[in-house]
Amino acid sequence: MTAHDDTLIFQRSRNGRSAAAQAPRPQTRPVGIPDALRRRSAPGLPAVSELQVVRHYTRLSQKNFSIDTQFYPLGSCTMKYNPRACNSLAMLPGFLDRHPLAPAEHSQGFLQTMFELQEMLREVTGMSGVSLTPMAGAQGEFAGVAMIRAYHRSRGDDQRREIIVPDAAHGTNPATAIMCGYQVREIPTDASGDVDLEALKAAVGPQTAGIMLTNPSTLGVFERHIREIAGIVHDAGGLLYYDGANLNAILGKVRPGDMGFDVIHMNLHKTFSTPHGGGGPGAGAVGVSKRLLPFMPVPVVVRDGEGGYRHAAEADYPHSIGRLSAFAGNAGVLLRAYVYMRMLGREGMTRVAEFSTLNANYLLAELRRTGFDLAFPERRATHEFIVTLKRQAKETGLTAMDVAKRLLDHGYHAPTTYFPLLVPECLLIEPTETESQETLDGFVAAMAAILEESRTDIDTIKGAPHRLPNRRFNEVAAAKRLDVVFRPETETGDAPEAENARTGTHG
Ligand SMILES: *Cc1c(COP(=O)(O)O)cnc(C)c1O
């Protein structure tokens, strides 16, 4: 990889230096490792002092955009503040040191916490049962569609081969349907952002296993015909899947269960605020309606009268789709979500919905006033909304990518770009409820400055970002030929032997 001067700690390496003072000292030499598998040479670690290590990683952390340092309006991803209390309580020694195989009688506190989390999620979604085991949103989707498949099979209904997915859907939806062995039938969205009902009516039939929807949709609008959609799909014998990655806009206001959905996954790391990004950690709890209860992934925490709490598994759920994670899911994330929900309480949940939609609608109005076009100008925002730069791209050449890159120079993380796919040159903007009005105003000012600059100096924008170590990446190469292995060709300092470096270092 081409590294910026101070990106790689190996470039500070000088033979003889070390930072061993903090290393845990093994009590005994590890035994039982066959001789052939033992290392012959020293690992290719950088030789640096402790102070160099501290400075290096502190500096790297400051190069990052993060929710703890900057406004991060990444649509669909819900980068809201993660309250510190969630961390400290989830890391109480009783939780942290508990062995996952500890017997139920030694784990009553943990199990009660998980049981109450299931109950709270059941309550906010209006479903009949909840399983906490999926480890990510996408895995929750897999669990949900696997339950739909198990349901149809249990009835001997084997002709249902299709899952209907609107064109606005998150990419994980069609991917999930395919992973579960279904064919995807895409249906269009109408000009106002709702599902095209005529297209839906034409698409359903005895081959329909179900539909995957989210409401609000990833277009940032609330699907107004959801009852009618539920009727059409149910009448055809299909089930309704709710992508509940982001419940921010509806918490305490509307429940997917009441809208007619049969199964839902929730991204606890988004709505219920645990630190996430870059691929983890996550938790994708699933909720189900009555008819899908027998198929839930196990284990599920149950309360046996006075007998206390325990994990119910295959013996209790013989029709379960099975296990999705080692043990019982991502305990650290689940505990944080539990604390978050307890801190908010019933009343706080409602405020999340009110302030996330207020912030989104404020930002929407301000950006419109500034001269940006909305993808759905006649619709109110939910927790997020879409700006389209189709007109600017034609007039001045300013694209969504340009705005995203120039925003970095202004100190803001970019909104989501080029998703949903059906809106050209789009920015999907999600301010979340935890931002102040000053922050939102600062963002609007930056957006206004970029719009103005696009009329006078588009070249500066095209070269952005100017204040970060790297400019623009070749995105295709970055995705297809990603190479983050350090090879010490650069000859700075006494670089370690190549073979060791290759096995031991990631950029
Ligand atoms: C984030 C997201 C997902 C996927 O969740 P992961 O935890 O990243 O797997 C699915 N659907 C929508 C709408 C999302 O925003």
What would a concise description of this structure say?
The protein is α/β, with parallel strands linked by helices and 507 residues long. Helices cover 37% and strands 10% of the residues.
Layout of strands and helices, then pairs:
Layout lengths: L49 H14 L20 H7 L2 H4 L11 H18 L3 E3 L5 H18 L7 E5 L5 H8 L3 E5 L9 H7 L4 E6 L12 H10 L3 E6 L11 H4 L3 E4 L1 H4 L14 E3 L11 E4 L5 E4 L18 H40 L2 E2 L10 E4 L1 H6 L4 H10 L6 E2 L8 E4 L7 H20 L1 H5 L12 H6 L17 H7 L3
Parallel strand pairs: 2-3, 2-4, 4-5, 5-6
Antiparallel strand pairs: 1-7, 6-7, 8-9, 10-11, 11-13, 12-13
Helix pairs in contact: 2-11, 4-11, 5-6, 11-14
This protein binds pyridoxal-5'-phosphate (PLP).
Descriptive report:
- The chain has 17 helices and 13 strands.
- The protein starts with 49 loop residues before the first helix and ends with a helix.
- Helix 2 packs antiparallel against helix 11 and helix 5 crosses helix 6.
- The C terminus is likely disordered.
- It has two domains: 259 residues, Aspartate Aminotransferase, domain 2; 128 residues, Aspartate Aminotransferase, domain 1, CATH 3.90.1150.10.
- The chain is an alpha/beta fold and 507 residues long.
- Strand 5, helix 9 and strand 6 form a beta-alpha-beta unit.
- Strands 1-7-6-5-4-2-3 form a seven-stranded mixed sheet, with helices on both faces. The chain has a four-stranded antiparallel sheet with strand order 10-11-13-12, with helices on one face. The chain has a two-stranded antiparallel sheet with strand order 8-9.
- The structure holds pyridoxal-5'-phosphate (PLP).
- Pyridoxal-5'-phosphate binds next to helix 5.
